[in-house]
TrEMBL record:
Keywords recorded for this protein, A-Z: Lyase
Pfam families according to UniProt: ECH_1
Annotated gene: echA8
Single GO MF annotation: enoyl-CoA hydratase activity
Record bears the keyword Cell wall biogenesis/degradation: no
Protein name: Enoyl-CoA hydratase
Amino acid sequence: MGYNTIKYETNENIGKLTINRPDALNALNSEVLDELDNLLNEIKNDKDLRVLIITGEGRSFVAGADIKEMSVLSPIEANKFGKKGIGVFRKIETLPIPVIAAVNGFALGGGCELAMACDIRIASEKALFGQPEVGLGIMPGFGGTQRLQRLVGQGWAKYLILSAENIKAEKALEIGLVQDVVEKERLEERVNELAKSIAKQAPIAVKLAKEAINTGGQTDIDSALRIEELAFGMTFSTEDMKTGTEAFVNKQKAEFENK
Ligand code: CO8
């Protein structure tokens, strides 16, 4: 399918999705969200894919939801727009494969929220993070009030959301919002390295581990440990479990088949 506002390519078993509205610093309008939704449905059904990378074209990751589009919305329309974004971001978060945000520039408002819906965030030293919504008379509406506190705790979540202050990549690293910061020129290489290292692990084990972290993170410890117990047991029904453990015993490298 052809897209106007996003680009998608695959290299072996790694997908790369680029938000492609550089003139608007990749702001998320309804068209971007609709196209993302369609593409994510395709990605979800691609059995060969093992990792997805999300990044932005040009000097911005995503500078937020499209303020021009939002400025004329009625409350009902705003609600619909918010719901659309929340649905798309949840689709990213619950994809059966890991998703890495390669944060190449501005990650503001909906852009920070998009990065947070990914499993891992690697930032360029030029990246800027923030939830500036209250400065526009609105508030985060694509999951920011919930995901930010889960990632960095309520203190920093309140600091960032209530002050609308932006922070540089190094600060984002310090508070745990991103997992690594690299020079701008090295971002692609660093993210590809990480994607490849995830892609060579046993895919079903990776998928179950992601699911256990996501689901367990939303529940009490006893239920969460039960989720882990069940998922752990399930890995023993895979051929990849035999491949992985036998390769270790025979001092060989495992090649997993996603079975
Ligand atoms: N929406 C629409 N257009 C944008 C956005 C945006 N979020 N950000 C940048 N642009 C456009 C600019 O309007 C400009 O367009 P034009 O050339 O036509 O004037 C172009 O991108 C380039 O931007 P600037 O000239 O401003 O570039 P600068 O380098 O001077 O500044 C900044 C870069 C600092 C990133 C600046 O553009 C900026 O502050 N952007 C807005 C950041 C922001 O406030 N983001 C949060 C938006 S609100 C949000 O995300 C809510 C999410 C939840 C929605 C829930 C829905 C109900």
